[in-house]
Write a structure and sequence with these properties.
Keywords: Signal. The protein is mostly beta strands and 171 residues long. It has one helix and eleven strands. It has a domain of 105 residues.
């Protein structure tokens, strides 16, 4: 009868196969480990004020108004949100230029986290119009853009400093 020899690799494999793992007895204590992933709110930050500049009747006055940021800290598996913008009529004393003479151009949207942000340029009005939608979000995310507001000043406009209120909201 011939003796067989095992290679080192085969011997190691055989040794691993016969090595028992740690024994777990039915009465060994165990610990249940839990944790909580916190969730927050859906918020929108906007500039407090913006000056578009000046121009003559019959021209357009236009400028970026500053960064607008949606912060979605809800930690959702499937997150979505919509930002709307509404403008009051612009007034200077007794003179009025309708909100519908203004446009809101979103421009480039920069995101963090997982979210698809789709911008839409609109003609402003007194009722909210969708300017950015967020979809296919997962977990926390942000979206930031710097919109440009352009006012087409009517040829018959009366001189003066005109003021309106741009209200942006997220839901």
């Amino acid at each position: 009868m011939r003796a067989r020899s095992l290679s080192v690799a085969a011997a190691a494999a055989a040794l691993v196969l016969i090595q028992p793992g740690p024994a777990v007895a039915a009465d060994d204590p165990s610990t249940t480990v839990t944790y909580t992933v916190t969730s927050g709110a859906l918020t929108l930050s906007v500039p407090a004020s913006a000056a578009l500049g000046s121009g003559a009747p019959g021209t357009q006055i236009s400028a970026p108004i500053g960064p607008v940021t949606v912060t979605d800290d809800r930690a959702l598996l499937s997150a979505s949100w919509t930002v709307t913008a509404a403008e009051t009529d612009f007034t200077s004393g007794a003179s009025t230029i309708p909100a519908t003479r203004a446009t809101y151009t979103t421009g480039t949207v920069t995101t963090t986290g997982t979210i698809t942000a789709t911008p839409t340029s609109v003609t402003l009005s007194n009722s909210g119009q969708t300017v950015v939608t967020g979809s296919a979000g997962v977990g926390d995310n942000t979206a930031t853009w710097n919109p440009t507001v352009t006012v087409s000043v009517p040829a018959g406009a009366i001189g003066g400093a005109y003021t309106g209120t741009l209200t942006q909201s997220v839901a």
